[in-house]
Amino acid sequence: MFFAAQTIQNACGTQALLSVLLNKDDELDIGPQLKEFKEFTNMFPAEIRGEALSNSELIRTVHNSFARSSPFIDETQRTANEDDDVYHFIAYTCVNNTLYELDGLQPAPISHGPCTTTSFPDAVIPVLQKRIARYPAHEIRFNLLAMCRDLRIRAREIGDHEQLQREEQKRTEWLWENALRRHNFVGFTGELLKGVVRQKLKEGTYDQWVEESKKKTRTRMEERKKQGVAGDEMDV
What we know:
Elements: H1 12-21, H2 32-40, H3 46-54, H4 57-64, E1 91-95, E2 98-102, E3 110-114, H5 120-132, H6 151-158, H7 161-182, H8 186-203, H9 206-227
Antiparallel strand pairs: 1-2, 2-3
Helix pairs in contact: 6-7
């Protein structure tokens, strides 16, 4: 079984995907580079395997191609720890007829009992429900992602042109969204803000505008605090 410790921040999503993918190489073609990586790290302990994963140029390049633009450099570096579990992706998959939870912040894979590929959907549901139940009843910030076969392949196989068109449209939108996420808007935002400030100063309403903005911000923060809403999403 492939299991790696998470050794860096902000990589749990990529690591969760790889935890599923690298344990399914007997069912699908993962490509020569990932196959070579798995074979190379096969005898490593989880901690060293995690370091190898974070140092892989291929994995790092693909991960960074989806990362948000960060114009401000954070020079502080730390390894992942249990506190990162608040907003965290983990993987659930069937390996050797057993349902496993693969969480890089845990010391080892966690078994959730017998499971087959066919029974996986029914077996994983109560496990997910139990995990969600650990949080307050009003908490709704969870993401559930499924790794599946490219839906365009099946659409082509059965001749479903409408489905194929929808899937192609999705990918066009994803490319646009990813381009926006990676773009650095700091310069644009700065120039826009300077233009607004100049206009407010010209109108003589700058101080009033600032105070009203502060008041609105405090009101929003108080409302979010009452609702128990934080700034990030809670991921499973």
